[in-house]
Every structure is written in structure tokens, then in C-alpha cells.
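Standup notes
- DV: blocked on the single-chain target, sequence here:
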Amino acid sequence: MKYNRILLKLSGEALMGDQNYGIDSDRLSDYAKEIKQIVDQGIQVAVVIGGGNIYRGIQSEGAGFDRVQGDYMGMLATIINGMALQSALESLEVQTRLLTAIRMEQVAEPFIRRKATRHLYKGRVVIFGGGTGNPYFTTDTAATLRAIEIEADVILKGTRVNGIFTADPEKDSTATMYETITFDEVFQKELNVMDLTAFTLCKENNLPIKVFNMNTEGNLQKICNGENIGTLVKF
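- DV (later): unblocked, structure below
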């Protein structure tokens, strides 16, 4: 087994499936099954989901909201997605805990690092909602921060493409995929892996990132077992 403790980062848009917004129940169920496979192997799993399928803070100014208000609305969207994933996992009899950076005791536990680590030791999937609890930070940054705090072995960034490419593979058919790439090369080539704050945090804390296609069945388990899937960003 390659990894003992992972943080899985999913985008909110990934939960939409083929819809224009909201949550696709089939896609959610597929993700829950993928996560259950690695939990059953004894791997400790934490998850951060974006909120872009419900609300994007950065678009809020055009809708008449100021950026701070919009970002808080986006944080609440991540909690809704976290609750949905929690429900999907528990329907498969996977124990979970939803921890939020914004206090809402009726819905979830407040984020406390030691509590999160304890849940992981007990084999529970820990879902982090509410971003960092602060505006102007993305869920990529929240995922990186939580991964460092819980001492995860790696951030697994599940996307709809197979890895990191020389160009956007959905727009450029000649784009080729990197199997491995260094942090410095990503900076030099100006590749879009994560936002700069999150990426810099990973580099400074020696936290590798694996970018892979979450929509391909079995990929998550293969990565955790050491198979060469996706692109590894290393030092």
C-alpha cells in the first residue's frame, strides 16, 4: 500500500455530472463507492469538496454581492456538498464525520485538528466543509491547509481529465500528459494545477500532489495501491 493517509480534493462541479448545476445522485454514489473501496483497505481518508456546483464566490460581484459575502455563501455551499457525500457514504455503511470551519453544531462538528486526527485513526472518513472559514481563500487552499494539519501523505486531486497536460486537453488535442513533474517546473511552465496560495503551501511543506481522473472507475484505489495513474507533482 503506497499511502496510509490521504486527502481527496474534489471540485463541486464534479458532482454535477451532466447537469448544469446541483448534485447528480449517480455521480455522488459512484464517488462514495470509490472512497469505500480504499477505506475497506484500511486507508485513512479525508475529503474536501468545492462548492462551484451551487455557488461561486468569485462570481458574486456581478450578481450584486460583495466578494466577502459571496465567499461566505460559497463556503456554505461546500457544507451542503459535504452533507450530501456524508449521506452517500453512510448509505454504504461507511462511518463519517463532517467538520466545518464555520460553526453550525446542529449539522456538523467544528474543526478541531486533534479531533479530526482521532476520527481518522478510528477509520472514519473525515469531510472538511466551510473552506478555511475565511473569505478570499479557495477550497484548494483549504484542502492544502487541512492536509498539512492532519499530516496526510499526499493530496489526491480528482478531476475530469487524466492528469496534468502541456495544455488544456479539452481544447488542444496535441496536449501531452506529464507522468511526473516538479513544483519548480509547474511554476516555470505556468501550469494550472491549483491556485498559487495552495500550491506554494504544498511546496513549502513537502506535500506531494497527485492529479488524476476521478471519473474513471477504480483509479482512486489503484493510486492508493501504488499504480502509476495520473500526474505526480513532486520535489
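- Follow-up: Strands lie at 5-10, 44-49, 96-100, 109-110, 125-129, 154-159, 180-182, 209-213, 231-234.
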